[in-house]
Design brief:
Helix content of chain B: over 70%
Strand content of chain B: under 5%
Oligomer: heterodimer
Radius of gyration of chain B: 23 Å
Shape of chain A: elongated
């Protein structure tokens, strides 16, 4: 459907896109996830046609997009600040695209009505953008894009300016809309939770490169690198080393790793465990590993408390303990353990 | 910071008093005591001059708009880099530092019978007889457009600057070619700048004296020249005053009609209760 091959874009000294390749299936929901300046917006704008890449190729449904102006591409964009035309009513904003296609008046009317209904804004057709709240403007921007029935819908941090509750609600609505429309969605966000909740596949980006592309659970359970592990969710990352007897041990306390983990370890890799997979208490049996540390901070998350433990070598273990139990004191010594099957290795 | 009423009064007071004493009061006095309104109103000669002034002003306003819009558009949307943008800005503003008289005389050198244009065309063999460029309606209009264009560029560029770049991108994204995106989005959103710029240029031109008198060489007369004649040549102060008031009233009527027309156009875009949330 969308084939992006070794795309690159340089601004002066800054590599916004560095040999990026991405293949997107028809109807897929892809999230481009990364911090600001990682190239995710540049990638999106290259697909939309607002950025001319320096190298590489983009094709949609087998047709090359290079050199095609934005108005000749089968894509539509939902802009970060909505970019609604202030001098047009909601209905006229939505009708802008169909009018450019010179559709019959009756069909334009019908399509506008359908699109507004799909986003729950049909009662606001005669309002003007300045009379709408942020969430309503967001919905109109969405309607204005989908009314054109694009092959691909590009969304540039569309929920970034909304408050948390509205954002959650719109996340669900967007997912629903994606299923009913069957359009390919490419969604740019710096919010890892948003990406994991909505996307079929997530592309984690940094410094103009895609570091890892995979399903949300793959990314979460098996991040390819330290960077991905720390950007997507919280995690304990422990450096490993080869002990005196040739066995793989933790740098923090010399604890020996279980055999099946040690077998797949490669030099330089760190052990990664998610906070929910770590529990208080010493290790029991050969498959479990334990570390000892001092409580550095405790954050109350409702059902759990998230505890940061500082280990002997200054590494930090992050542990979720039940919120109902006693609150650990700062400075208190604590031993925590995990099962080897819940741990994975990440490269630097 | 908030300013108290007393401070505000103290700050605005002197200027207000000055304007009141030396402009509003004498002017009101003139307007009330002025005689011969009827004579002026019934004399087609004055109507002709007013119509001519109006015509020149309208042409100059339209000309300024046509010249200034591309400049402002280039300045805001196309010019690459801040340095170039600043240079263009300075070039646009620089003429304002020179006196109108000097700049008008500059045009005499360019448009005159032995001026740059005539000599160039003649020497190239493109014309057989020197053209009468100077001291015509053409030279009056050219001179005024040259003087007034900076005002139009400034008011247009300040409005164009405020148009979100993403709006033009959205238009293209939704299938509009660049010209269509301009007509449907950029142009209507720049209307406030067009209106403000036209008003400034139009009113300044209606009252312009130096440029029309230099560039027409006395061969045609605009209202301000007529008024000057009453004061300085005929020493007919009452008639001069009445003509000045007629010019003011006439300009106000035209500006009012223009604003009404603009409001009619804008009503198609903006809701009546635009500010209501």
């Amino acid at each position: 459907m969308i084939e992006i091959k070794s795309l690159s874009k340089v601004y002066g000294q800054f590599r916004a896109l560095d040999d990026v390749s991405l293949f997107v299936e028809e109807g897929e929901f892809i999230a481009l996830l990364g911090p600001s300046g990682c190239g995710k917006t540049t990638l999106l704008r290259s697909i939309a046609g607002f950025v001319q890449p320096d190298g590489g190729s983009i094709s949609i449904s087998g047709r090359s997009m290079l050199g095609q102006p934005p108005n000749k591409r089968p894509v539509n964009t939902v802009f970060q600040n909505y970019a609604l035309f202030p001098h047009y009513s909601v209905a006229n904003n939505v009708a802008f695209g169909p009018r450019r296609q010179r559709l019959p008046v009756q069909e334009i009317k019908q399509r506008v009505q359908e699109a507004l209904t799909a986003v729950g804004m049909s009662d606001f057709a005669s309002r003007f953008p300045s009379q709408l709240s942020g969430g309503q403007q967001q919905r109109v921007a969405l309607a204005r894009a989908i009314v054109n029935r694009p092959k691909v819908l590009l969304l540039d941090e569309p929920l970034g300016a909304l408050d948390l509750k509205l954002r959650k609600q719109l996340q669900l609505e967007l997912s629903k809309l994606h299923k009913t429309l069957g359009i390919t969605f490419i969604f740019v966000t710096h919010d890892q939770e948003e990406a994991l909740v909505m996307a079929d596949r997530v592309a984690v980006m940094s410094r103009g490169k895609i570091l890892q592309l995979g399903k949300p659970d793959e990314i979460y359970d098996h991040p390819s690198s330290r960077y991905v592990a720390s950007f997507v969710g919280e995690s304990t990352l422990l450096r490993c080393d080869v002990g005196q007897d040739g066995r793989v041990v933790l740098e923090a306390n010399g604890a020996v790793l279980p055999a099946q983990l040690a077998g797949i370890w490669r030099n330089g890799q760190s052990l990664m465990i998610r906070p929910e997979n770590i529990a208080v208490g010493p290790a029991v049996g050969p498959d479990e590993t334990a570390v000892e540390g001092v409580v550095a901070s405790v954050a109350f998350l409702g059902s759990t408390r998230r505890v940061h433990l500082e280990l002997a070598n200054r590494e930090v273990a992050i542990v979720d303990i039940p919120g109902t139990g006693p609150k650990p004191e700062l400075g208190q010594a604590l031993t925590v353990h995990w099962h080897g099957a819940k741990a994975t290795f990440v490269s630097d | 910071m908030t300013i108290t009423r007393l401070w505000a009064a103290l700050l605005i007071g002197p200027l207000l008093l000055c304007t009141l004493c030396f402009f509003v009061l004498p002017f009101a006095l003139l307007a009330v005591t002025g005689q011969g309104y009827m004579d002026v109103l019934h004399d087609p000669y004055y109507w002709r001059i007013f119509a001519y002034t109006l015509e020149i002003s309208a042409v100059v306003t339209a000309g300024c708009l046509l010249i200034a819009y591309p400049i402002a558009y280039y300045l805001i949307f196309i010019a690459p880099g801040r340095t170039l943008r600043r240079v263009i800005f300075i070039i646009v503003i620089a003429p304002l530092f020179t006196s109108n008289i000097v700049r008008s005389f500059g045009w005499i050198i360019i448009l005159g019978r032995n001026g740059v244009i005539n000599n160039a065309l003649y020497d190239l063999g493109l014309i057989e007889k020197k053209l009468q460029l100077l001291y015509t309606d053409f030279s009056v209009v050219v001179g005024l457009i040259y003087i007034m264009t900076p005002f139009m560029v400034l008011s247009l560029s300040s409005v164009l600057q405020k148009i979100e770049p993403s709006l033009r991108e959205a238009a293209k994204d939704l299938g509009a070619s660049p010209p269509v995106a301009f007509i449907k989005v950029t142009l209507p959103l720049s209307m406030p700048g067009i209106v403000a710029g036209s008003l400034i240029v139009f009113t300044l031109t209606m009252g312009a004296y130096v440029t029309p008198s230099v560039m027409s060489g006395g061969k045609s007369t605009v209202m301000s020249m007529l008024i000057y004649q009453q004061y300085a040549v005929s020493i007919n102060y009452p008639l001069g005053a009445v003509l000045a008031i007629a010019l003011l009233a006439g300009s106000l009527v035209v500006v009012g009609l223009y604003l009404m027309a603009v409001r009619g156009v804008e009503a198609r875009y903006k809701p009546l209760e635009a500010s209501a949330k």
